[in-house]
Structures are given as C-alpha cells and as structure tokens.
C-alpha cells in the first residue's frame, strides 16, 4: 500500500492539452474521487498513474518511488475498467487468478487467494461461471476482486459504476467503500456523478480542461469553492457578480452582499459570491427580517418544483433567476408570481476572486 | 447471444422458409446435382459416352487401397496442407495483429489493400509471376547476386519450397482476414486489464489474445487446409516433376487420362479423409478456443 504523488504532470495529444500542469497528492489509504466534466482529462490522469500512457512532463511517484517511465505491468496497481474488461474465455475464478498466475504463484496459494477474494466480494459460489453468465453488479464485483487479489499498491477505478442502474449503484457504492476500508488500499476513483464523489470519498479533485481546479475534502469544496466552476459543478450555487468591497461585493445595482468566507479580494476588484440554494430563507414580504440573515434581496417566485421532501423555488430578481431549496415541513407554500424576500447569512456566502 | 437464440427458436423456422428457399435451390442445382453425378460416376466402370459399355463397380475405390502410390500421395498432400496452413498462420496472424491492433486509419487501409491484392489477381498470373521470381536467372536470383558479394545459385523453381511459397501466397489472405475479424473484436481494454494485472506483453498475447482469436485461426486453417490438400495448379506449375500430389493425380484422371470414374472415386476418398480429420480435430480445437 502506498500513496501517490502527481507533480506538474502535463500530457498533450497533438495540439490539445489533455493534462496541463496537474499536481495532486493522494495520501496512503485514502479514497479519492476525480470529478470533472466530459473531456476534462480524468481518464488521461488515471492512465498516467496506471502507466498505460506516459506524461510529456512532470513526476509521478507511487510509494515514494518514481514511476513515470515504468510500464504498467511493473507498477503493481489494480485497475477496474468501466466495461469491467473481464476475460470472456475464462471462468470467474480464472479471471481472478490471472494476476497471481502470471506471477507464477503456486497453484495452492492461487486457489486460496481466489476463494478469499470471491468471499470478500460476496461471490463465494460463482467461481465456476463464465463472465457472460453474470449480472452487471456481479461482473463489477469480479472485476474488483481481480484487481485487488494481487495486493496492488493503488486501486484505480474509471467510472466503475457508470453502467449500473441507480439502486445497484448505491449498493455497489456501499460495497466498494466497505472493501476499501477492509483492505485499506489507496483508491482513486473517476466519476461523473457528483453525489457519488461527495458521499464516497475522503477527498475530491475537480478537473476542468486538463487543470486541477480544486482539491480537498468534500465538505471543504462544497462549503468553500474557490471558483465559480467548482461552486456550480459540485452542487448547485447562486452566483452574484460585482466588485469587491472588502466585506463582500457590491452588485451593479448598488445592492451589497456580505461574505465572511472565501478568498480575500482587494476592494474594487471584480469578484463574485456563491450561495447554496438550501442556505437561503424565503419568506413573504410581511415577515420580520432576521438580523442573523443580513443579506436580503427581494424578488418574485417564477416557478416552484415539488420534489417530495423539498421544494425548489425559482425566484426572478433583476434579470437573474435564483434558486432556493426549502424543506417541506408543512408550512405555507408560496404561489408562483408572489413577491418574496430572500435572506441568508454572510457565513453562508463564499467570496470568489474573478 | 443467448437472447437472440431464444427468440429465433421461439418463432421457429417457418417464417424464414421463403427467405431460405433461393439459397436451398441454388445449393441443390449448383452443388448437390453435380456432386451426385460424381458419386454415380465413381461407381461406374467407364463413362457412358460414345455408346461404351459400362456397369457398376467398387473397383475405382479398390484401386486406392490396392496401389500404395495413392495413399503415399495422399499423405504427401496432407503434409503439404499442414505445412502451408502453418506457414499461413506464422505469416498471416502477425499481419492480422498489426492490422487490427497497431495500425490506425489510412495506413491500415493501405496495408489491408496489399494483403487482399492476391485475391484480386488471377490465380494463373500469380503462379507464373512466382515462376519468374524463383527460377534460375530469375528476379530473386539476379537481385540476390547483385547485392551479395559472393556468387550464389538460387533456383527454387520446380521444387517443394516453390510449391509451398506459391500456395502460401495464394492462401495467406484467408488467414489474415479471419484472424483480423476476431482480433478486431477483442476489446483493447482486455489487453490493458491483462497488463494492469502484471502480465507482460508476451503473457497477454499467449493467455488472452491468442485464446480469444482461436475461432479466427480455426476458420482460417479450415479454409486453407481443405483446398490445399486437393490443390493441383501450384504443384504442377511451380513443382514440375517434384510437384506430383494427390490433387494433380485427380486432375490427370479428368483432363489427361479421361478416367472420370477413378478421378471421382479418388476425390471422394479425399473428401472423406478431410472430413474425418476435421471431425477428429473439432473437439480438441473447441476446447482450445
Ligand atoms: N489517445 C488520445 N488521442 C487524442 N486525444 C485524446 C486521447 N485520449 C484523450 N484525448 C483527449 O484528451 C481529453 C481528455 O480526455 P479524457 O478521456 O481524459 O477525458 P475524461 O475526463 O475521462 O472524459 P469522460 O468523462 O468523457 O470520460 C479529451 O479532449 C480527449 O479527446
Ligand atoms: Mg473518461
């Protein structure tokens, strides 16, 4: 088991920079999610770490040992592919045994380790089946067992749950997390799904156009995004743009918004504020203003979407549509077209340098 | 796959019959009728032409067993078929691998064309061009002597190697095509998965790629072995006096000696032997594939 250090790694395909000076530290035993839109370089980064592809520049170390030029078969990594990539001509047990057998382990050891891996992924009795006789979730487990049976130093997964339906996905998330805890392996997990990234990982790295936009624990990225992109890509956010005042920003119409978290931006410079929809309180004009929620704006409800336990209000204000999420506690519901007051605390407002 | 089969069997063959009819008609006219005529001939003492007397006999088949010449030639032809098939694998499989897994885009198309080219040229033209290359004072001889500092005599013409070269050249496209198709279907992620598990390129080749391309190798081998065992054109032209094989003897019966009944009987013995070989090989190959 080992940590992975990626330092200033760049990789271009022709004129296109798929990775542009990416640095990130994956601590030993951690569970990392790499998140980003399609084409942002997630797979490319994972392939550099795996050794399927070599960077043009930069350093990659696994367990402190430089591996930029080490081919994949010598890196001692485990990889789970999006399409599982199980060998169709081999039984489940032979698939899992493959890594041990190419290493020349004795037959008895292989049989024992394979059974242990099968038990770990709860497929104890299916060793004799062929991959095409398994369900999607079972194939997923076999791919995982095959990747970890060789005791790799790092486990790399490229959208491993992408092909599963929602319910199975949640099961597998829990399962994957359990197995990762059990063997304590450093895990790097590529995903499209922000919810998956938030619930599963210890840390998240957000990629955009080949650059690492922000990296940190999920709570930190969610509560203190350092860019508009990070704010809107991980979760929903209302963005206000204006000029920094030293305590927040002033919008073009003169309204000020106070922010007590985020970057420090010199007064007068362009800046924006991000507010999560669930941090905003929505009320009719008649309600008494709450001193704790110092930021207030007025607007008009343009749409309300009911989603069972919560409702989303879209509020029009001065050409901007703001989003507010309210728990459905049985209190009054606001009608479309109704004038409303929005208020929230400066503590919930993140200042972002433009 | 299993789903498709299930659907097929549930609907039954009946709706497909009108679609299959033309194919069956064609098979009947083009293959079954001439073949039955040949079976008939093979049991006759003589051709019923020009009012000659004829009767039924097993004599044509008996000839094969009474004269060791025929079984010797059959063995020579089987060996020829085996050797040509092996050379086609040795040359065709790597070529198919490069086409399917290494080359991309334009260069793939160009090389593909080169591989298919022998298919489009007339068989006789192909064989005679080899004759020009292989004979003493031919292209190969002249070229090698121009490059090498010492004098060597290359005269492969009218030899066993010449027959092999000509046949391999004619039949290697089959191997390339069948292997290309199966290699093409192997997902690259399987190769990457193998390597991520610590297997070297060579181990991935032997444990993943070759087993998965077995169907293509088998199909190619069957497509090559069967016609090569009965071949007569290449052995005759490139082999000269050394080029007497089972196929050339059959051809002689039809075009030179006009002993059609013996020719037909020898053909059916060949057909039976080839079918037996394929039947014996099938379970072994299926296990490997
Ligand atoms: N082998 C390659 N040749 C040329 N361009 C490539 C190659 N691999 C990746 N790219 C390009 O690099 C960029 C990053 O690709 P990558 O596959 O890493 O994206 P991704 O973040 O994994 O996207 P997705 O979420 O869609 O899987 C893309 O613009 C892609 O077109
Ligand atoms: Mg990808």
From TrEMBL, chain A:
Its EC number is 7.6.2.11. It catalyses: ATP + H2O + polyamine-[polyamine-binding protein]Side 1 = ADP + phosphate + polyamineSide 2 + [polyamine-binding protein]Side 1. SUPFAM superfamilies: MOP-like, P-loop containing nucleoside triphosphate hydrolases. GO terms for biological process: putrescine transport. GO terms for cellular component: ATP-binding cassette (ABC) transporter complex. Residues 4-234 form the ABC transporter domain. InterPro entries: AAA+_ATPase, ABC_SmlMolc_Importer, ABC_transporter-like_ATP-bd, ABC_transporter-like_CS, Mo/tungstate-bd_C_term_dom, P-loop_NTPase, PotA-like, Transp-assoc_OB_typ2. One of its GO terms (molecular function) is ATP binding. Keywords: ATP-binding, Cell membrane, Membrane, Nucleotide-binding, Translocase, Transport. PROSITE patterns: ABC_TRANSPORTER_1, ABC_TRANSPORTER_2. The keyword ATP-binding applies. The keyword Transit peptide does not apply. The complex is composed of two ATP-binding proteins (PotA), two transmembrane proteins (PotB and PotC) and a solute-binding protein (PotD). Part of the ABC transporter complex PotABCD involved in spermidine/putrescine import. Responsible for energy coupling to the transport system. Belongs to the ABC transporter superfamily. Spermidine/putrescine importer (TC 3.A.1.11.1) family. PANTHER family: SPERMIDINE/PUTRESCINE IMPORT ATP-BINDING PROTEIN POTA, SPERMIDINE_PUTRESCINE IMPORT ATP-BINDING PROTEIN POTA. This is Spermidine/putrescine import ATP-binding protein PotA. It comes from Mesorhizobium plurifarium. The lineage of its organism: Bacteria, Pseudomonadati, Pseudomonadota, Alphaproteobacteria, Hyphomicrobiales.
From TrEMBL, chain B:
GO terms for biological process: transmembrane transport. The keyword Aminoacyl-tRNA synthetase does not apply. Its main location: membrane. It is found in: Cell membrane. GO terms for cellular component: plasma membrane. CDD domains: TM_PBP2. It comes from the Bacteria. Belongs to the binding-protein-dependent transport system permease family. CysTW subfamily. PANTHER family: INNER MEMBRANE ABC TRANSPORTER PERMEASE PROTEIN YDCU-RELATED, INNER MEMBRANE ABC TRANSPORTER PERMEASE PROTEIN YDCU-RELATED-RELATED. This is Polyamine transporter subunit membrane component of ABC superfamily. It comes from Mesorhizobium plurifarium. The lineage of its organism: Bacteria, Pseudomonadati, Pseudomonadota, Alphaproteobacteria, Hyphomicrobiales. The gene is potB.
């Amino acid at each position: 088991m080992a940590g992975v250090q990626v330092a200033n790694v760049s990789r271009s395909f022709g004129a296109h920079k798929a990775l542009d000076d990416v640095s990130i530290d994956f601590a030993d035993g951690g569970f990392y999610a790499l998140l980003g839109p399609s084409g942002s370089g997630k797979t490319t980064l994972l392939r550099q770490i795996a050794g399927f592809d070599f960077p043009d520049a930069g350093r990659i170390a696994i367990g402190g040992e430089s591996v930029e030029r080490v081919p994949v078969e010598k890196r001692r990594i485990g990889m789970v592919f999006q399409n599982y990539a199980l060998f169709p001509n081999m039984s489940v047990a032979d698939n899992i045994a493959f890594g041990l057998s190419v290493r020349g382990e004795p037959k008895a050891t292989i049989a024992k380790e394979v059974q242990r891996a099968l038990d770990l992924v709860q497929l104890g009795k299916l060793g004799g089946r062929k991959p095409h006789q398994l369900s999607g979730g079972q194939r997923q487990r076999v791919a995982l067992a095959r990747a970890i049976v060789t005791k790799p130093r790092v486990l790399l997964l490229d959208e491993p749950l992408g092909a599963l339906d929602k319910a199975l996905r949640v099961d597998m998330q829990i399962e994957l997390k359990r197995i990762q805890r059990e063997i304590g392996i450093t895990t790097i997990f590529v995903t499209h799904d922000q919810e998956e990234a938030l619930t599963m990982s210890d840390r998240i790295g957000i990629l955009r156009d080949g650059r690492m936009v922000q990296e940190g624990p999920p709570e930190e990225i969610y509560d203190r995004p350092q860019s508009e992109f990070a704010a809107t890509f991980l979760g929903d956010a209302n963005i206000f743009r204006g000029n920094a005042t030293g305590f927040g920003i002033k919008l073009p119409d003169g309204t000020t918004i106070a922010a007590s978290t985020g970057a420090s931006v010199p007064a007068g410079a362009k800046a924006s504020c991000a507010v999560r929809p669930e941090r905003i309180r929505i009320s009719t004009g008649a309600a008494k203003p709450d001193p704790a929620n110092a930021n207030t704006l007025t607007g008009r409800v343009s749409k309300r979407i009911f989603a069972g336990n919560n409702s989303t209000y879209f509020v029009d204000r001065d050409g901007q549509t703001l989003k507010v999420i309210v728990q459905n506690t049985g209190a009054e519901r606001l009608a479309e077209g109704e004038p409303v007051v929005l208020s929230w605390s400066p503590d919930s407002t993140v200042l972002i340098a433009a | 796959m299993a789903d498709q089969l299930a659907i097929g069997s549930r609907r039954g063959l009946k709706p497909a019959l009108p679609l299959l009819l033309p194919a069956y008609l064609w098979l009947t006219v083009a293959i079954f009728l001439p073949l039955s005529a040949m079976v008939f001939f093979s049991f006759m003492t003589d051709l019923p032409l020009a009012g000659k007397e004829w009767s039924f006999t097993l004599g044509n088949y008996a000839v094969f067993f009474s004269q060791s010449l025929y079984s010797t030639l059959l063995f020579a032809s089987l060996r020829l078929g085996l050797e040509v098939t092996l050379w086609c694998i040795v040359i065709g499989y790597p070529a198919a691998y490069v086409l399917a897994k290494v080359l991309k885009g334009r260069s793939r198309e160009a090389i593909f064309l080169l591989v298919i080219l022998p298919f489009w040229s007339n068989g006789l033209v192909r064989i005679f061009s080899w004759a020009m290359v292989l004979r003493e004072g031919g292209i190969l001889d002249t070229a090698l002597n121009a490059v090498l500092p010492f004098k060597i005599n290359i005269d492969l013409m009218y030899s066993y190697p010449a027959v092999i070269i000509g046949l391999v050249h004619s039949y290697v496209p089959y191997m390339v095509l069948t292997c290309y198709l199966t290699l093409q279907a192997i997902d690259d992620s399987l190769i990457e998965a193998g390597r991520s598990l610590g297997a070297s390129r060579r181990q991935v080749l032997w444990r993943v790629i070759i087993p998965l391309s077995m169907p293509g190798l088998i199909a190619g081998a069957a497509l090559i072995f069967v016609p090569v065992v009965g071949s007569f054109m290449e052995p005759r032209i490139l082999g000269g006096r050394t080029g007497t094989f089972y196929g050339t003897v059959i051809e002689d019966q039809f075009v030179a000696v006009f002993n059609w009944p013996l020719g037909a009987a020898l053909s059916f013995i060949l057909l039976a032997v080839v079918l037996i070989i394929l039947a014996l090989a099938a379970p072994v190959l299926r296990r490997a594939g």
